[in-house]
Amino acid sequence: MTDSSIRHPSLEGTEIADSILDLIGETPMVRMKRISAELDLECSLVMKHEVTNPGGSSKDRPALEMILAAEASGELQPGGTIVEPTSGNTGVGLAIVAAQRGYDCVFVMTDKAGKEKVDLLRAYGAEVIVCPVAVAPEDPTSYYSVAERVTRERGAFRPNQYQNPHNATAHVKTTGPEIWRQTAGRITHFVAGAGTCGSLTGTGRFLKSMNPDIQLVAADPEGSVFSGGSGRPYLVEGVGEDFFPAAYDGDLWDQVIAISDEESFLTARHVSQTEGILIGGSGGTAVAAAIRLARDARPDDMIVVFNPDSGRGYLSTVFNEAWMANFGFVKECDQCVGAVLDTRNASIENLLYVNPQQPVSDAIEIMRETGVSQLPVCKNTPPFANAEVSGSVDELALMEVIHRDPSAMGMSVENVMGAKLPTVGVGQKVELAVAMLETAPALLVLSGGRPLSVLTRSDLLSYFTAIAESVTAHDDEEN
Ligand code: PMP
Q1: Residue minimizing CA distance to atom 2 of ligand 1
Q2: CA of 314 to the centre of ligand 1 (A)
Q3: What pLDDT score does 1 carry?
Q4: pLDDT digits (tens, 9 = 90+) for 404-414
Q5: What CATH fold (topology level) applies to the domain 324-465?
Q6: pLDDT at position 360
Q7: Ligand 1 within 6 A of 449 CB?
Q8: 3-state secondary structure (DSSP) of residue 271
């Protein structure tokens, strides 16, 4: 039975929403009082908290607007299928609207997105296809390519949130007017993370139409194109891009502030614990940028930071101690892996690596000159702010390759490289490194989510020898 064939009794006079779709938008705004006090801020720092949308994120708004527009244009027919590549939140919005209006949904995601997000979409009855993040968009296994193929095969409607003008329109129609009304027109700055750019550009268009002096500020992960990067795969989800989506509007935006993964995650945790507002990594990116502005703001400034979703979707990442420690964002102990590296002054500037495009002969020369037996393969280096690890090479494997085919000396390293080295965080326990080195020849030590150094058995031997010697020396002194 279709919805239109049923006669529903009237709910007039009640406060009951007609369907879940009527509960999208009208999200609350809240002052960040404790953070403001802690940082001695003079201005008002407030959050537009999108978590109370039915799907728990800001993306319910564009999901509804894009589907209504497709119905109106005839692109989406009754009982049709919706296909979208999404990191999760837009998918939830689309799944909710699809359930309510009788469509099937297929979502294509990268393996960078949290497992909870995949499970969540499946919970709404959607089909989810997971693709590797570490491939170029034109690769047939990339999530862009897979989404194209599935759309074709099923004759589906593809909202294409990156190109669809109704994405930003949703925020022009709803988010902007809500913020203007809720702040009584006192807003001076609007800060939001940018993924598709719909939130910042759409909300910003409305706000500037009311007051052109309102400053629009994008909070961008370091390495993403909006802040001048190349689109390196940073860890924060949902924001930053390696291309410019249709809603990107550099002329409208007043400022872009680049924020590291480390600052995003630590800020998300701090806001959650200080204010009791559980926010995710990209919310952390936005708050971190808002705090930078707030430090220099005037007392009558009102900085509104857009929080797109809840920290609940990041319990296995941002709020998981082992995950955070493995990337070197938090320390588990005092005498940890970092202490081993200190004994030989390891630093990111001294990281030995080879580029994927360099010839094998270069890799061999570096190893011979420096006496190491393995190298990580890194692109975008230097500077290391952009370091992206793609694999590793080791002495033994190269020896076998060249023995089989001497012309391999001239081949690119990427054609002969092996898997990435297992990683250990700079703040993880030395015991963990010892256990891992029983099976791996070397480990890549991460600090702040980035490669710092390679750790080998001989490093650990030197470290333990140094400790043993200092204990012996101490004993000798006492005797
Ligand atoms: N944060 C999260 C978690 C998101 O899913 C998104 C949407 N990709 C954003 C921020 C950015 O919003 P927008 O796409 O409107 O720029």
Answers
A1: 238
A2: 14
A3: 41
A4: 999 999 999 99
A5: CBS-domain (3.10.580)
A6: 95
A7: no
A8: helix
In the reported structure, the alpha carbon of residue 430 is separated from the centroid of ligand 1 by a whole-number distance in angstroms of 38
Residue 41 sits at φ, ψ, to 5 deg, of -80, 140
CB of 89 within 6 A of ligand 1: the answer is yes
**Distance, CA of 109 to CA of 120 (rounded, Å):** 13
Cα separation, 298 vs 222, whole angstroms:
27
Is 59 a residue of the active site? yes
Tell me how long the chain is: 479
Tokens 């909300």 -> residue: 203
Q: Is 311 in the pocket of ligand 1 (CB under 6 A)?
A: no
Q: Which of 49, 50, 57, 242 to mutate to test the pocket of ligand 1 (most atoms within 8 A of CB)?
A: 57
Domain boundaries, the chain: 15-56+165-314, 60-153, 324-465
Distance (angstroms) between ligand 1 centre and the Cα of 309 equals 9
Q: Judge if 15-56+165-314 and 60-153 fold alike in CATH terms.
A: yes
Cα–Cα distance for residue pair 449/185, rounded to 1 Å: 40
| Res 475: pLDDT | 64
- The Cα 313–Cα 326 span in angstroms is 19
Average pLDDT over all residues of the chain: 92
Residue 436 has pLDDT above 50, yes or no: yes
Token pair for 366: 């570096």
| 61, 89, 107: residue to mutate for ligand 1 pocket, most atoms within 8 A of CB | 89
Q: For residue 49, give the 3-state DSSP assignment.
A: strand
Pick the CATH number of 60-153 from 2.40.110.10, 3.60.110.10, 3.30.70.20, 3.40.50.1100: 3.40.50.1100
Lowest mean pLDDT among 82-91, 241-250, 284-293, 310-319: 82-91
Tens of pLDDT, residues 119-165: 889 999 999 999 988 788 889 998 889 988 999 999 999 999 999 99
pLDDT band at 87 (very low <50, low <70, confident <90, very high): low
Could you please state the CATH topology (level 3) that the domain comprising 15-56+165-314 is classified under: Rossmann fold (3.40.50)
